[in-house]
Amino acid sequence: MPTNRLVRARFIARLLAGSLPIIATIASAAPAAAQSAELLQKLNAPAGRVADSAKSGNRVFTAYLDLTKPPQEVGREFNQTTIWPGMDGFAAVAKWAESNRNMGKVLLEVQNCQVLGVPYGTKGVDPKFVERGLIAEIGVGGDLTKVRFPYLNALETIAAYATAESYRLCEEGKFEEAFALGIANLRLLRQACDAQMFGEKFAAMGLLADAYSVHRDMLFAYGAKMTTDSLRKLALKDYPEVRVSENERMKRLELPEGDLVVAEELVRSVFADDSSVNEDTFAATFAGLQAAAEPLTSFGAVKRWKAIAGVHGSRTASLEKLNEIYDDWWRRWRLPAYGQMMSLPTAVSRINPVKYAAVSLAVKDIDGIFERRRRLIAEYDGTVIAAGLAGYHRQFGAYPDILLKSYTQFFPKRFDFDPYDKNYGGFNYQFLGTKTKSIDVEGARVEVTGCVLFAVNADHEPNGASRHAAGGATDDFVIWPPLRAVARGQGK
Hints:
Blueprint (H helix, E strand, L loop, with lengths): L9 H4 L23 H12 L8 H9 L24 H9 L2 H10 L16 H5 L5 E2 L8 E2 L2 H21 L3 H18 L5 H25 L5 H11 L19 H12 L9 H15 L7 H9 L5 H20 L22 H7 L4 H29 L31 E14 L2 E12 L21 E4 L2 H7 L3
Antiparallel strand pairs: 1-2, 3-4, 4-5
Helix pairs in contact: 3-5, 4-7, 5-8, 7-8, 7-9, 8-9, 9-16, 9-17, 10-16, 11-14, 12-13
C-alpha cells in the first residue's frame, strides 16, 4: 500500500483530532504566518465553479441551526452506529427525531446537489454559522499549521438524526419513507467526501462508510417485512446511484488537492527569498509540527531544525519536491490498487531526508486515506449486494446457493467487487443452508445462518470468515449478515 502523500501535511493529517497545535513553549519565534486571501481564493475556487443551487451546505446547516438538542451528546457512545430500537432510551431518541422532521425534509431536497460547498475561511459566511462552528478554518489563530473543520460535528449529528428517524419510521412500518431518508443522508455524506482537504475527506468517508453499515443493519432487521420490489429498487437503483455516474470502484471520488495549496503556502512562509531560510520561523514551525506528531522528540527540536535550515533545499526546490510527491500520490490514487506501480518506491521515500526534512515531515503518514477508500468501497458495494440478497431471500424464502444466481435481477453484477482482492475479483460467498456458523467479532462470538458475504481485508487472504474486522489488516470483513445487528438480536 502506498506510503506517500504530499501535501496533506502530517500536521493536517492530525486534523481529525481537532487541530494540530504548535507547542507554545518550544520557541518564542513567530509560527508560520496565517493564510493569505490568495490562498483562500485558491481553496475556494473548485466550489466557486458550482452554482449555489447545486450546493447543499447552506440549506442543510440552516436546518441544523433549528435542530433541537438530542437526548444524548453525539459522540463515541451515541452516534449513527449505536442508535437502534433496542437501545436504552430509544423512545426519547425517536421523539427527538420525530420533532425535527424539517431536517428530513431538507435532506430530501438537497440529496441531488453536487457538493456540500463549505467555504474555507469565514469571510462572507453567515455569522450564525460562524458562531455554531459550521465552518472550515485554515490558519487558526493566525497560524497556518493549524486547521480545523468543526462543521464535521454537524454532519455527525445529522447522520445520527437520519438514523433515528429512519428506525422510527421502520418501527411504524413506513419502510419506503425510512429508506428514502437514509438514501438522502448517504448522498449528503457523499457530497461531503468531495471536500478539498484531507481531514474533511477522511472524516466524511468514515461517516459515509458507517452510514452504509447502518443501512445493512436496517435491511437485516426489516427486510422480511418489506416487499421484494422495494428491496430490488434499493439494490438496482437507489444504492448504486448514491452519486450520479459513480461506479463500484468509486472512481469519481477525487483525491484532496487543497492540502497542496496549504503546503506550498507553508513552505513559502519560512523562506525570506528563494535561497534564504528565515531560521527562527523555520525552526519554530517544523519543531512544533514534529513535537505535535512525536512529543517525545521535542527536546532540542528547535536547535536541530535551525541546523537543518542552513542546509535545507531552496524554496523553489522544496516546492518542486512537494509537487513531485503529490503527482506520485495522484497517479497512485487513479491507478488500480494493486497494479505494478504500487510496488515501486514512492516519491517521498526517495527524497533526501536532511536536504528536504521539512517536506518529509509534512508528507508522512498519509497512507490511511487509501485504506479508508478501500473500506468505503467494500461498505458501498457490499450494501448493494446485501439489499439484493435480502430481496432474493424475500422472494424465494432462502439465500442463493451461489451468488451469481442473484446477479442482474437482484443487484448489478459489477458491484460484486472486493477492493481488497489483488486479482480484482468478487466478494467471498458461503451458502450455509441449514448450518450455523460462528464468527468472532469485538470480543464476542455470534452465530449466523443462511449465508455469509465477506471481503478478504488488507492481508488479501480469505480466512473463512471465522473472525471479523471492518477494513482491518487481517481476518475477514463480513458484509452480510451484518454482525452488529446479529449480535444485538442475540443479546451480545
